[in-house]
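G., the chain you wanted modeled:
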Amino acid sequence: VYIVYLRHNDDNVKKTFEEIEDSHVSYLFSVKKFEEGARSSLLYSYKHSINGFAALLTADEASQLSDMEEVVMVIPSHERQYSLHTTRSWEFSGLDEELKPNQLNREDLLFKSQYGKDVIVGMMDSGTCFSF
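Predicted structure as tokens:
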């Protein structure tokens, strides 16, 4: 898996997610033999955090993409093992990790938050820094 970081493009603000994804597929199609292969190799299109995408690529395809003028860099994605930096998360958020759902009352945070449905609690930061 590689992250392809593209130059900033003000037009992306106006584009739909599907239009951005199609644009990313066109980059992949330039290094893949078939459009279906390009489409299936696209794993994720970024719209808000960066202008770019994640894709399954060979080292040669990644190299070809990195030679394109619009491409800032192509970064290999490495699996990492993350660990918590706190042992007090439950206490900090006001939760009791031993509490069972049938023990909750209507005033409990877990009940009010629908047991965390559609909630992002945190964001992982690998500490990776890029310089240009």
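The helical segments are 17-29, 35-41, 59-66, 89-92, 109-112.

Shout if anything looks off.
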